[in-house]
Specification:
By secondary structure, the chain is an alpha/beta fold. The chain contains seven helices and seven strands; from the N terminus they run ααβαβαβαβαβαββ.
Length: 172
């Protein structure tokens, strides 16, 4: 959730600007009323959903083992993966890395997403095609990335390094 707040509200960039003696006016993205798409509704995905609800976000989720009772209790709608990716404002990934999830966020899926979508990955490196994500950040298709997991760890080289609106943490 911290990465989502930082990416949506431009907190790292604003911190740096103020440190540099600037006083920019930046509104960022208001979370209330936005739609969060959670990919993987296990224990962590469920906790994220509850926090998002506290911020008045609409929550939709994809999980092959979807917990209908939890979803009904908390007002979470089930969606298929591609439908979710095309309709949300923020995507948060909480799935294991395997043959079916490697580069699940790829060039084709990014192209179908809303302009300005923010993607958070605190699960596993390799879920996002970093090359495709870098191109989408540069073109403005993606509004931001909050990444705690990378294809190579520790992160030494990546096409995402040095790009604006990309936040890295060291798999914490």
């Amino acid at each position: 959730f911290a990465l989502m707040l930082c990416a949506c509200r431009n907190i790292p960039q604003l911190h740096q600007a103020v440190t540099d003696g600037l006083w920019p006016r930046s509104e960022g993205v208001e979370l209330a009323g936005r739609t969060l798409g959670i990919v993987g509704m296990g224990a962590i995905g469920k906790r994220l959903a509850l926090r998002a609800k506290a911020f008045e976000m609409d929550v939709v989720a994809y999980d092959p083992y979807f917990d209908e009772a939890f979803a009904a209790e908390h007002g979470i709608r089930r969606m298929e993966l591609d439908e979710l990716l095309c309709s949300v404002d923020v995507v948060s990934l909480h799935v294991p890395l395997n043959d079916s999830t490697r580069h699940m966020i790829n060039r084709q899926r990014i192209e179908k997403m809303k302009k300005g979508v923010i993607i958070i990955n605190t699960a596993r490196g390799g879920l996002i095609d970093e090359e495709a994500a870098a191109e989408a950040i540069q073109s403005g298709k993606l509004g931001g990335l909050g990444l705690d997991a990378f294809e190579q760890e520790p992160l030494l080289e990546s096409p995402l390094k040095g790009l604006p609106r990309v936040i890295f943490t060291p798999h914490t």
